[in-house]
Design brief:
heterodimer; A: alpha/beta; 2 domains; five-stranded parallel β-sheet; two-stranded antiparallel sheet; elongated; B: 825 residues; alpha/beta; 5 domains; four-stranded parallel β-sheet; three-stranded antiparallel β-sheet; 34 helices; 8% strand
Chain lengths: 378, 825
């Protein structure tokens, strides 16, 4: 029986490109539910501590039967604040630069708290209230008139009805009036369906319902959001990984994993990773490690981008020459992958290679500097 | 024989202070040994006076070999202070049992009670703390501490928990150079006290506790001796000074102990629960005073989040970060630019959200200490009195004016004294007139001196900066310099001020910090101005003793580096000439040309100038300036190829998009190992005389000869290489030809910027230029002067040209005459 189940799970994982978090980590979630003894807020499937453990993983010394893998590199206090917000009467708004794992954290939180992360509204200029709340099956509507049967629930409706957390991705990319349609739901926790008579006309949210919205600071940002809506959210800013070593470790792990998938047996070279992570961190923060300031790149210098550059470098090195990739490969890939061939960014990158790289110590930095001509593009 | 009770504490921890009081009251020992400077044992009575805390013991040692100043701060909830008080209460003999602050073991340490966990890479301890943070799910060591120890719990449990923590933190780590001598001394003191027979309570930093327990039994039980005499020529002093909560706060960037002193103080006096409410109230009041809107609903949300966090984290009472996290969660309504201050150790980052800054500052507190009556006056007051008397400057009841001639070395000393008092903010000393900057031509200062009732209080306050007028003023100035941050203009002003008080006393620590602040200056124009002023001071500051000063050299070197970086970032192919930028390039040139004692990377600079001079994205003035920089320094004359890089004929043909940015290397050290292959574009050598930079410049001028950009390009070139231009017949000829070839309309477009370009020449040089032009045309050079002044003004000439053009156009329309006419601007 258990075998069968496992086989089924493998099956899903084999055919689905990217299974949702609750499927991907089904085993861990089941174990946590089984062993969780902490108090659970009403409507939650796990206690707050178990949710934290699910996201941050067990310490390496753990002797538990199932070791929970670490899924995000975040300060624990951030996770604490997110969870407590979700357990109170305000929604959670995650803001930050693109590529800081906002969506991942929102997915993991919903998977752990509600057991499903698929109640998701993807914000965009064309999103209407129908796609958020509910719409109608017009054949049934014409035939039977408005009824619960002819109503087609959208994620918000489902979340309120079932007491689950609804994700609203990139909320600031929706028109303002669509954003504001969330107001009454968030404050009164009730959704009016005026087309239906009787008790069905008012959908009162069950315990466990809340909203996690994400917004990135590069697009429109949260400045245009109405003060009324802002008031109903608690804001959490998600930052790129603060610690150099932690970021380096993550890039190394992820790159190695991706390279294995691409059939590359060589691990990325430490020197190249050091160059990559340092370059990304300095151009992202606008300060170099000796404290001097520089312009930040307008492109997204996220850890995820760094991983994709490192992956490309590894693939190139192995399949073109059979090595693990050189600083020169890195220079070639920075232009397209990191600077996205934006002329202004290329200038900044070039200036960085000309003036900063040359001043750093180490042979790999000198090789990096020497390869600056490969940046191309201008 | 009595028993030994070692209580390992964290300095400035209210929980530890409670434990210490409890243990001493319970044990009623014969001796209480407290971590603190042993040379103060004869002066403990000074500490017992009626002070308002926080106060600190300030210790300095200043001599040829060493310049050291450090503080030992005490506040109401310091375990050390509480130990002293309770020891008196139970009749125990209290003693400090650590080395004096001037001992070499404290080298480089500004605060004896600094929390060194965050300060030093103590490999084992930091690994242990990191693992513990991970295990317990907290951000950093401060939160960890609050979580483990500051929560309400029975004191016996606290004691046990502390002992376990410190035991594991220390493990078997040896003391090393820093802790070894201190721990040996402490262990010897313990052995000495134990020989006395009674119980002994030891209050020391938790990191030392396990070591002392291990060491004392083998230590010699004689009272450890101190070497009391300082080395020759060295002044040493130690006295009480007022301190402040701001300086105790780890967020303020001092090497301080616990973060948020006002919170700790409230916990100590009112208990954990009441403290949170009081602090939240204080934070909200300060936010509302700053017109930040905080609604009642927000407050409710804030408290409910705080309670939720406390419950999640298993806290019986709200902890400091529960409350701070809740404030951030419920009150901040925007994306933050930098992480929350309490998620990492260290001072507040720039661009921290103003709301967060206000809250952190409310948690930090405003309390300033005050010394009780009868505290001996710090030596600074005596030092100042003596110095004033020696210079005949004693303040009197009626104001008097003192004139100081800076040219006289003795009077210059007087000026320094007065400036130092002014820097320390001593009331009653005011400068009425004098030079604003040390290299100004004015050589006389006028001061008003009068006795002021607050002067004495100001000196006691200032005593925390140092023991002598010189050291205190320097320390005060250093603080200002560090606070000035990244603005080179402000730094230049302050350094100019420092020149009056004696610039050579600034410590190398501060010099390094200033130099790195320069590295973030954002404006090239301001950098140029400041560099000019500082370089003046560096070269001509003899009058105030600032010439060749180390601090200036370091700052100028940093400015050179930063200038190159900023210069490379200026873009805009059509941008008009910016005088500030050109002045900056001139400054960069002057540093190379005249700053022989500076350490500058000229090769890199030449590389930057090469790239800029051929960069089509650079403003024309920058291109001209970069070229002039190389020319005037005689660099880059061999091997460089400016011609093919967009300045040559391709530009005239209008195809400037292709060549964008090619890679150029220049052989600046002249060893000739650059082949043609190094150049992206190897053509263009046929354009004329390319034997020297002047030849290149001539070609470059031809290349830049678009009406809209020519003047700006020349402005850059003239600003840097006036002399070289005048000497170069080739360039002048090329310029003449370029202007000849312009149509009348083009010339009118180019005229304003050309006038600007020529304004870099003084009148006499303009005449030389005119001679060159005439010589080039083979005409009589005697006529040169007449070319310089028109009988009428330029606007009228331009108007005349325009009128003529209209006449021509009308003629052409009606076929009345030849519309083509020789133009001779």
């Amino acid at each position: 029986m258990a075998k069968e189940k496992a086989a089924k799970k493998d099956d899903v994982q084999a055919t689905v490109q990217r299974p949702p978090a609750e499927v991907l980590h089904a085993e861990e979630l089941a174990y946590l539910r089984e062993t969780d003894r902490g108090p659970r807020p009403p409507g939650w499937q796990l206690s707050l501590r178990a949710v934290r453990r699910f996201l941050l993983g067990d310490p390496p010394t753990s002797k538990e039967k199932v070791t929970i893998r670490r899924k995000v590199v975040f300060p624990p206090s951030l996770i604490d604040r997110c969870m407590v917000t979700l357990a109170t009467s305000r929604g959670l708004m995650l803001v930050g630069e693109p590529g800081t794992a906002k969506s991942l954290v929102s997915e993991l939180l919903t998977a752990a708290i509600s057991g499903r992360s698929t109640l998701t509204i993807q914000g965009g200029a064309s999103v209407t209230e129908d796609q958020i709340k509910y719409s109608w099956n017009y054949a049934l509507l014409v035939n039977e008139g408005p009824s619960l049967r002819s109503l087609v629930p959208a994620p918000l409706f489902l979340g309120m009805r079932d007491g689950a957390i609804v994700r609203f991705e990139e909320i600031t990319r929706c028109p303002l009036e669509v954003q504001d349609s969330m107001l009454s739901v968030l404050s009164d926790r009730v959704l009016a369906v005026p087309e239906l008579d009787g008790p069905d006309g008012m959908l009162f949210a069950r315990e466990g319902f809340n909203v996690i919205a994400t917004a990135n600071t590069r697009d429109k940002g949260v400045n245009e959001m109405s003060a009324a809506l802002k008031r109903r959210f608690n804001f959490e800013t998600v930052f790129p990984i603060l610690d150099h070593q932690a970021e380096l470790r993550l890039v190394r792990e992820e790159t190695t994993r991706l390279l294995e998938k691409s059939g590359v047996p060589l691990a990325p070279s430490e020197d190249v990773l050091d160059l990559l992570v340092t370059t990304f961190r300095e151009l992202r923060s606008g300060t170099s490690d000796d404290g001097s300031g520089m312009e930040r790149l307008s492109a997204v210098m996220s850890t995820a981008e760094a991983v994709s550059v490192a992956h490309a470098v590894g693939v190139r090195g192995f399949y073109l020459r059979g090595d693990a990739g050189t600083p020169a490969d890195l220079v070639e890939h920075l232009a397209g992958t990191a600077a996205k061939d934006d002329a202004e960014d290329l200038r900044k990158l070039r200036r960085y290679l000309e003036q900063r790289a040359s001043k750093k110590k180490g042979e790999h930095w000198q090789a990096y500097h020497a390869a600056r001509g490969l940046l191309g593009g201008g | 024989m009595g028993a030994l009770h070692v209580v390992g504490v964290r300095h400035h921890s209210p929980a530890c202070a409670r434990l210490v009081a409890h243990v001493i009251r319970e044990v009623r020992p014969r001796h209480v040994l407290i971590e603190g400077p042993a040379d103060w044992n004869e002066r403990l009575d000074e500490l017992r006076l009626d002070h308002t805390l926080p106060i600190a013991i300030f210790t300095f040692e200043r001599g040829p070999a060493r310049d050291h100043a450090s503080w030992t701060p005490f506040c109401n909830y310091s375990p050390e202070h509480v130990a002293l008080k309770v020891a008196d209460e139970v009749g125990a003999a209290a003693r400090f049992f650590d080395l004096p602050a001037w001992h070499p073991a404290f080298e480089g340490l500004r605060n004896r009670f600094a929390d060194r966990l965050g300060l030093e890479e103590r490999s084992h301890a930091s690994r242990y703390v990191e693992a513990l943070c991970r295990e317990l799910g907290v951000d950093d060591v401060d939160t960890l501490w609050d979580h483990l120890f500051e929560q309400p719990m029975p004191l016996s449990a606290l004691r046990e928990r502390l002992a376990t923590y410190f035991e594991r933190l220390r493990a078997d780590e040896p003391g090393g150079d820093r802790d070894g001598p201190r721990e040996d001394f402490m262990a010897a003191s313990v052995a000495w006290a134990m020989r006395d027979g009674g119980d002994v309570v030891v209050v020391c930093g938790g990191y030392h506790a396990p070591a002392i327990e291990r060491l004392w039994e083998d230590a010699s039980p004689a009272a450890p001796a101190l070497d009391p005499s300082p080395p020759p020529d060295t002044r040493r002093g130690s006295y009480l000074v007022p301190y402040s909560e701001k300086r105790l706060d780890a967020f303020a960037g001092y090497e301080a102990g616990m973060p948020s002193p006002a919170f700790q103080e409230a916990v100590w006096t009112h208990g954990a629960d009441a403290a949170c409410e009081a602090l939240l109230q204080r934070a909200v009041a300060s936010l509302r005073a700053k017109r930040q809107h905080v609604s009642t609903a927000d407050l409710i949300a804030c408290l409910s989040v705080a309670r939720g966090l406390a419950q999640l984290r298993g806290h019986a009472a709200l902890a400091r970060t529960d409350l701070l996290d809740a404030v951030a969660s419920a009150l901040v309504k925007d994306a933050l630019e930098v992480p929350l201050p309490w998620s990492r150790r260290g001072p507040l980052l720039p661009r921290t959200d103003p709301l967060i800054v206000a809250v952190v500052s409310a948690f930090s507190g405003e309390q300033r200490g005050k010394l009780g009556a009868g505290t001996p006056r710090p030596p600074l007051a005596a030092d100042v009195e003596a110095i004033l008397a020696a210079h005949d400057l004693d303040p009197r009841a009626t104001p008097r004016e003192v004139r100081v001639r800076l040219a006289d070395p003795r009077e210059r000393d007087t000026s320094r004294v007065l400036h130092r008092l002014r820097v320390l903010g001593v009331p009653g000393i005011q400068r009425v007139a004098g030079p604003g900057f040390a290299t100004d031509a004015e050589l006389e200062e006028r001061w008003m001196i009068v006795r002021h009732e607050d002067a004495d209080a100001a000196l006691i306050e200032a005593a925390s900066y140092g023991g002598t007028l010189e050291s205190a003023a320097t320390a005060r100035l250093e603080e200002g310099l560090i606070a000035a941050g990244a603005s080179l203009a402000r730094l230049a002003g302050l350094l100019g001020e420092a020149a009056f008080t004696g610039i050579d006393t600034l410590s190398s620590r501060v010099v390094g910090q200033i130099a790195s602040a320069v590295a973030s200056e954002p404006s090239l124009g301001e950098l140029g101005e400041a560099t000019h002023r500082l370089f003046d001071l560096y070269r001509h500051g003899d009058l105030v003793g600032a010439s060749q000063a180390l601090v200036l050299a370091r700052v100028l070197e940093a400015a050179f580096d930063r200038g190159l970086w900023l210069l490379e970032g200026v873009s805009g192919a059509e941008a008009p000439a910016d005088t500030g930028h050109l002045r900056a390039i001139v400054a960069l040139r002057d540093l190379v040309r005249r700053g022989a004692t500076l350490v500058l990377d000229v090769d890199r600079a030449a590389g930057v100038m090469e790239r800029r001079s051929v960069d089509l994205d650079a403003p024309p003035a920058i291109r001209g300036g970069a070229l002039g920089w190389l020319w005037s320094l005689g660099l880059g004359s061999e091997g460089a190829d400016w011609v093919g890089l967009g300045l040559g004929s391709e530009v005239e043909a209008g195809s400037d998009a292709e060549t964008g940015h090619a890679h150029v290397d220049v052989d600046v050290d002249g060893d000739g190992d650059l082949g043609d292959g190094d150049f992206g574009h190897g053509h263009g050598h046929g354009h004329g005389d390319v034997g020297d930079v002047g030849g290149f410049a001539a070609l470059a001028v031809r290349g830049a000869a678009r009406p809209s950009t020519l003047g700006d390009f020349l402005a850059g070139l003239f600003a840097l290489a006036r002399e070289e231009v005048l000497e170069s017949a080739v360039l002048v000829g090329a310029l003449d030809e370029v202007l000849q070839e312009m149509t009348r309309d083009d010339f009118l477009v180019a005229l304003p910027s050309l006038r600007f370009a020529y304004s870099w020449f003084p009148p006499r040089e303009r005449e030389r230029f005119a001679r060159r032009v005439l010589a080039h045309r083979g005409e009589d050079v005697g006529e040169a002067r007449s070319l310089l002044s028109l009988p009428t003004d330029a606007a009228r000439v331009a108007g005349g040209y325009a009128l003529e053009a209209r006449v021509d156009a009308i003629e052409a329309k009606y076929g009345l005459g030849p519309s083509e006419r020789e133009e001779a601007p």
